[in-house]
Each structure stands twice: as C-alpha cells, then as structure tokens.
Amino acid sequence: MFSMDRQANEVFYDGKDPAIFGGSLSIIEGVNYGERFGGQSDEFWKFYEANGEEIEEEEKRAFANWFADCWEKANGKSVPLPAYFSIHDDTESFDLKKNDWIMDEEKWSY
Asked: What is the pTM of this model?
C-alpha cells in the first residue's frame, strides 16, 4: 500500500511519527506464493490461458470487495481525502468513497 501525489508519484515519509503514513508497506505478512500443483502445472496453465480474462475479473472483484470491507470496518470514509484501490498496471481503480470503479484518469482530475 502506498500514498500518491497529484502527479501519480509514490510519496515517501521517512520520519518516525506513526500517525503519518507514507511509503510502501506490506499488508499481508508471511504469505508464501508458490506452485503447489505437483504434476498438474501444465494443466493449470492451459486452463488459466483459456479462462484468464474471467479469472482476472473475479480476482479483481474479490480483492476489491475484501479491501472495501476492510476500509469500511476501519471507518475509512471518515478520511477527508480521496481513496482508491487498484490492481497494479490496471486501467481502473475502485473509488472507496463512492464504492464504484472509475478509469484511472478520473483519479487525477479532481
């Protein structure tokens, strides 16, 4: 997770005040990613290639829903700044204030 300025640059804070967020941080520690398919790797990749668009849309929706739920539980809407969730290199972002997907260009037009 990281903060962005109006020019879409990542913002870093090197101070020691824990109330000020800046820079990147890991939000899910200890998660290991790896192949656990035994001899089924080829079958998995064939399935993924054939269904990749649908799988990626479901992944995107699942992560956005999870993030929005966490945002709501943390009273994120009380933050007086715009807030978005997005998948790296995607063209859309989820507006956490409006609970809706927007094109990335819209984030920088306020």
From this structure: 0.60
Q: What is the pLDDT of residues 5-59, one digit of tens each?
A: 777 777 766 777 766 655 555 454 444 445 555 677 788 888 889 999 998 888 8
* Exposure of 78 in the CB half-sphere (CA atoms within 13 A): 4
Sign of torsion over alpha carbons 47, 49, 50, 52: positive
List the beta bridge partners of residue 101.
94
> What is the tens place of the pLDDT at every residue in 59-84?
888 888 888 988 999 999 899 989 99
Give the Cα separation of 44 and 33 in Å (integer). 15
CA distance 3 to 12: 7
Q: Which of 92, 83, 85, 76 is nearest to 110 (CA)?
A: 83
Structure tokens, 103: 């094109």
Instruction: Specify whether the CB–CB gap between 44 and 58 falls below 8 A.
Output: no
Listed residue (98, 99, 102) closest to 90, CA to CA: 102
